[in-house]
Description:
The protein has 181 residues and is an alpha/beta fold. The chain has helices at 13-23, 33-39, 55-72, 85-97, 111-120, 128-133, 135-148, 159-170; strands at residues 2-6, 27-29, 75-79, 102-108, 150-153.
Amino acid sequence: MIVWLNGTFGAGKTTTAGELVRIVPQARIFDSEYVGFMLRHVKGLPEVGNFQQWPPWRGLVVQTAVQLLDYLGGVLVVPQTVLVEEYWSEIRTGLEKAGVPVRHFVLHTDEETLTRRIEADAVETTARQWRLDHLADYREALPWLRRAAEVVDTTGVPPARVAETVAAAALTPVPDPPARR
């Protein structure tokens, strides 16, 4: 299974992922950003503002996740912002075709909290302005994200509690939709 943690920068994806692997047996973090970092070194790819724009990134994320699950089993926790609905659809479809169940969560908080978290982040200081500049992209994507994922409000909630909420939801089977007549 894959537990995909989506949401904007500063919502708590990385921290929640760390908490999830602590409480979910056989869970491991798969940071799909490294697939993008790997592709940045390939000559001939067009210049893009975000490596998610490269179709090979999306395909390689799917294939890497499938290979990791085939080899290791368990649960992959993927803390990755995907704000383009078409990209998410491509990834989700690829995983579904491979038979991998996906639970998609959006970690959400209000913009004031996001701004405060981003400005206070002592680890990601070089990307601070970039993260702040992309809050508008998140706001724009929020309608489709609300339809495509389970939204977990992280406002004022400790990361361990957010992880418990995600784990409880992820480990509860999703009922099949009612049959159409």
